[in-house]
Amino acid sequence: MTKSAERTPPGSADLTQLLSQLDLTKLGALAGKVDLAGLLNAAANMDESQLKQLSKALGVGQTKERKPRELPAPDGDFFGLMDTLTDEQREVAGQVKAFMHAEVAPIMNEYWNRDEFPRQIIDALRPLDLLRKVWNEDGTRKADATVMEGLITLEACKVDVSTAVFFGVHAGLAFASVALGGSAEQKAEWLPKMLDLKAIGAFGLTEPEGGSQVSQGMRTTCRRDGDAWVLNGQKKWIGNSTFSDFTVIWARDEDSSEVRGFIVRAGTPGYAVEKIQGKIALRIVENGLITLTDCRVPDSDRLQEVKGWRTTADVLRLTRAGVAWQGVGCAMGAYELAVKYAQDRKQFGKRIGEFQLIQNHLVHMLGNVTSMFTLCLRLSYMADHGIMKDEHAALAKVFTAARCRETVAFARETFGGNGILLENGVAKHFADTEAIYSYEGTNEINTLVVGRAVTGLSAFV
Ligand SMILES: Cc1cc2nc3c(=O)[nH]c(=O)nc-3n(C[C@H](O)[C@H](O)[C@H](O)COP(=O)(O)OP(=O)(O)OC[C@H]3O[C@@H](n4cnc5c(N)ncnc54)[C@H](O)[C@@H]3O)c2cc1C
Q1: 241 lines ligand 1 (CB under 6 A)
Q2: Which residue range is the domain that position 338 belongs to?
Q3: Atom of ligand 1 nearest to the CA of 282
Q4: Domain boundary at 255, 279, 301, which?
Q5: pLDDT tens for residues 386-445?
Q6: Domain boundary among 200, 235, 253
Q7: Cβ–ligand 1 contact at 431 (below 6 Å)
Q8: Same structural domain for residues 214 and 182?
Q9: Which of 99-106's residues contact partners 24+ apart within 8 Å by CB, and which partners?
Q10: Acyl-CoA oxidase/dehydrogenase middle domain: from which residue to which, for each copy (predicted)?
């Protein structure tokens, strides 16, 4: 028997079914490559199994659903710097990240619009016990305090810079003032409550007429009167002061011209706080304009170990690295939002992340974020090992604030018009950067600090 005689002649139904399922576009394309008539002739003589094989080869009946390509999750830690940290440091960073997403992200736009700090997050923050990751009970610092503070700040700022500012003012400026300037009794009274977030502090240094020059032109005065001091003057921009339990007030002694620090308790007669309204940055932080009118503070609330401006400067030195970290977190948060948006948003039938110019923005941002993160990690390491000088912190502040400004601008641009809507997140980062740029030493003043260090010549006027 010949081979063809052995074959089961194809049922015309099989061939008709095959032809009915052929994609005509594909068939047209095939016609240019193979002898289609010959193929159909051959098919007419095929048995059922051969027809099945041909169907498979032609992809008939296989509706190929293209699986959407999985895109990488946005990640601002491109060089894996988190991997260089200790388990505890990573764990604390993870806790802050989870807290920010669970407790702050859902309410932050509402509070931004209300120009108000959500005080309920203080209770939610308490179980994390973050201050004890930085400070010991006696007011000395943990061995890796500055790195830890940096990571807390980074993770907070990725979501909301204002939350980091609340924490930085209380756990940094106010806590350090008591820790460095307080007597043993004062530390025993305040530090445990501050560690537990049961007493919230504020830091009153800047004045309406004395910002950058406050060390030289402090107008708030103190005068000894029996067992008390009488304070007069104004302090401007004082974060947390609208609800804090006390504010550290820095004032110049009318007799000796020495700078002194005082713990001024909320409700003290002659101490009035007015909330500054209408800010375009850090609207969730409550900044106060404090007026002191013959405000009597007992000598027991004068910070007993303050050694003039030197102590104020020591407090600022301790916290300046934290402000540099705010720039890293703010920029990283904005970058990650921009990557996600570029992966999702479509224009001209493509994701905007497929456009070269958008990729250029993203890569520029990532370069900024990576260099800022690396710099701050090293800065904090230097601080924790006692080798950081003022000019190191100043350069970090100058560099990160400037790169943050550039990064959030690119991020906002990536969102197009949607970038100015609060609901998309990036607008808040964009606005908050303006405050980072100006506080804890403006970029000009920090530039002069670095300039003086590298040239040996002072350009301060
Ligand atoms: C949101 C926010 C929160 C803040 N929180 C606090 C707080 O909790 N406690 C507190 O005490 N303070 C706080 N501040 C104050 C902050 O530290 C000051 O704003 C900052 O020190 C700058 O002072 P200034 O705003 O008065 O600017 P100015 O000192 O008036 O400076 C105006 C401009 O002149 C430039 N300039 C000044 N002097 C020189 C010079 N010699 N050479 C070159 N350029 C110069 C500055 O760089 C700046 O560009 C806060 C500020 C803001 C905006």
Answers
A1: no
A2: 309-455
A3: 1
A4: 301
A5: 999 999 999 999 999 999 999 999 999 999 999 999 999 999 999 999 999 999 889 999
A6: 200
A7: no
A8: no
A9: 99/124, 99/125, 99/128, 100/155, 100/156, 100/158, 100/159, 100/160, 100/163, 101/159, 104/156, 104/159, 104/160, 104/163, 105/159, 105/160
A10: 202-295
